[in-house]
Amino acid sequence: MVKEHEHHHHDHHHKQNKPKNDLQENEHCHHYEHGEHHHVHHHDHSSHSGHDHHDHCGHGGHGHHHHHGNFKKMFWQSLPIGLIIMLISPMGELTLPGQFTFPYSDIIALVLATLLIFVGGKPFFQGGLAEIKEGQPSMMALIGLGLSVAYLYSAYAILADYFTNNGGGMNFLFEFASLILIMLLGHWIEMQSVAKAGDAQESLAALLPKEARRKEADGNYTLVPISNLVVGDLIQVQAGENVPADGRIIKGQSQVNESLLTGESKAVEKEINDQVIGGSTNGDSVIEIEVERLGSDSFISQVQELVDTAQNQASRAENLANKVASYLFYIALTAAIIALIAWLLIADLPTALMYVVTTLVIACPHALGLAIPLVVARSTSIGAHYGILTKDRQAYELADKADVIVLDKTGTLTKGQFDVLTIKSLNSNFNEAEITGLLAGIESGSTHPIAQSLVQYAKDQNISPVEFTENKVISGQGVAGNYEGHSYQLISEAAYGENLDFDRPTGATVSVLVKDGEAIAAVALGDELKDSSQDLIQQLKEAGKEVIMATGDNENSASIVAKELGIEYYANQSPEDKYELVKELKAQDKHVIMVGDGVNDAPSLALADVGMAIGAGTQVALDSADVILTQSEPSDIQAFLTLARKTNRKMKENLAWGAGYNFIAIPLAAGLLAPIGITISPALGAILMSLSTVIVAVNAMTLRVKEDD
């Protein structure tokens, strides 16, 4: 299936608010559950329509508005308080080695526990309330319930001991403190593991210069902030500068790099009346443009709008840990209610209360709190070893489900630069080395990508460029210069007007070196496929994935690469076209991975279930993606898919270990089997809980992708 689309930019008439970035270290989204990372979609970037998305962290499609602070800081502040409580509070009826009590030690533990609620417990109580309000109690509600019951019952037991004759029973402050510490640790571990989310909106805004050189009524130019520009202003753009606004050239001609629109690093010839877009880079000539589009109508703003919309889509990750916690919450509550009624009938209120409290405290998911974060920490460190940075934990689950992979061409499957493929002398008086020196000499000083490739090629071959005089640009054709009384030109094959007899590589751009009107050499330049691209496509097809290439490049270049790789493709894709393609695939209920490296890929990277950015690409692409392949190698896409599959399996194993303990322990703690003599004391419950936590930790460490990990 081969499709070619024209560029089209719909105008978005939306108020584009300024991007914000007020996050501290380890704080890109703090409504976490069970050490899980929840985003509205990928990262919470811009402030839009009055919402602050830093605080708007989606969870199963619902947004909580919490900013739970810095978990690393909370953990370290809570640790000494928690350890003292655990040192002076027996674990159930057990006194552990090193523990001790003294007169009023339980009162001190209770005071410290009260302090601990404010230092480290707050996020869990707030999160639990938010879940209950939404009618979706899961991990935070389960933790909040266990903590509340453990604290309130312990306070009652300790105070009753001092103020009543019959004593109040056992306190659960050991469990209370250990749960807060383990949960804070789990959150911190995971936050530390996933790479920090960047701000795509800010990276996009940074493409526009802060000031523009505006032509005043008297013909002079003054520097003005771009926010002061109005449609119709005339602005001058110097060589090498970024264009400040969308407009039309009214004076001069130049080559402009429009890679942010097309992904192509090849400079495009621009003349009077041609359109230029804000953020593109001017070549080596001065141009004057008339401003035509500003604010929400501009190209950059439309890309920002698309990225913003994409980032506010709810993730389609299932979030198994949340589901498990949800079941545990209802099981614990049901078991506690049954225990209360049954033990009130069989015995008395103190006995009934004891069983209820034991049930709800034992339901606390210590192991579950570490089940996911420890796997994520292990997985991300293995990934980093291979140059793969993961910014969103959900990327593992979604990549594992992927049906279709959309790949950008330039810079992703190909090297994204013009390399010299062949130099052919057409005149027996010149050898290849002499031709190389002439080519590098006539192009020296030009910023055109072809020129830079030729100069670099000569440098790599240790050939000195020939020193030309009177170098000049021939508009739309190439360059010219004089050397030893002869006039030379390096022009396109089309400008030369004759087909040359030489074996040209597929899809190459051919330039002709002309001396005094006669062709003496031809040079073919092209964007080559990366070495591992063929293997990657082969592996993806074998894995049953649908592979599509979507490129801003023209039909001809796109078809050559697609044919070579044997994949379907879409050519001439604007950023919006790529976005619509991903949207359409998702509408067919396919899980989509998008891989790209340019500004034009940013909206589709943000919208895809998993966006993977090539590390050598633009900052905007890196900020819009969930996964960064720092080595820019296509083979790393397959490496990430393998890592995702194994990580996912390990997460499920850990959930089974972590939750399995609770499913067994809850009914026992409720005294379900007491009539036949089987009960579980809080101390035994705590030992089993510690055991399941250790198993989960050890299991996470056994994650391997290859033998040497």
UniProtKB/TrEMBL annotation:
Q: How does it sit in the membrane?
A: Multi-pass membrane protein
InterPro entries xref list: ATPase_P-typ_cyto_dom_N, ATPase_P-typ_P_site, ATPase_P-typ_TM_dom_sf, ATPase_P-typ_transduc_dom_A_sf, ATPase_P-type_domA, HAD-like_sf, HAD_sf, P-typ_ATPase_IB
Where would I find the P-type ATPase A domain in this sequence? 207-307
Supply the alphabetized keyword list: ATP-binding, Cell membrane, Copper, Copper transport, Hydrolase, Ion transport, Magnesium, Membrane, Metal-binding, Nucleotide-binding, Phosphoprotein, Translocase, Transmembrane, Transmembrane helix, Transport
**Chain ranges passing through the membrane:** 74-92, 104-125, 137-159, 171-189, 324-346, 352-376, 655-678, 684-703
- Compositional bias ranges of the Basic residues kind: 1-18
Its Gene Ontology molecular function terms? ATP binding; ATP hydrolysis activity; copper ion binding; P-type divalent copper transporter activity; P-type monovalent copper transporter activity
Reply yes or no: does the keyword ATP-binding apply: yes
User: For this protein, what is the EC number?
Assistant: 7.2.2.8
Which portions of the sequence form the region Disordered? Answer: 1-23, 36-64
Question: Cross-referenced PANTHER family, in alphabetical order?
Answer: ATP7, ISOFORM B, CATION-TRANSPORTING P-TYPE ATPASE-RELATED
Locations listed in the record: Cell membrane
A biological process from GO = copper ion homeostasis
CC per GO annotation: plasma membrane
Catalytic reaction list = Cu(+)(in) + ATP + H2O = Cu(+)(out) + ADP + phosphate + H(+)
* Family per similarity comment: Belongs to the cation transport ATPase (P-type) (TC 3.A.3) family. Type IB subfamily.
Protein name in UniProt: P-type Cu(+) transporter
Query: What's one Pfam family the UniProt record gives for this protein?
Result: E1-E2_ATPase
Q: Does the keyword Membrane apply?
A: yes
Q: Which residues lie in Basic and acidic residues bias regions?
A: 46-58
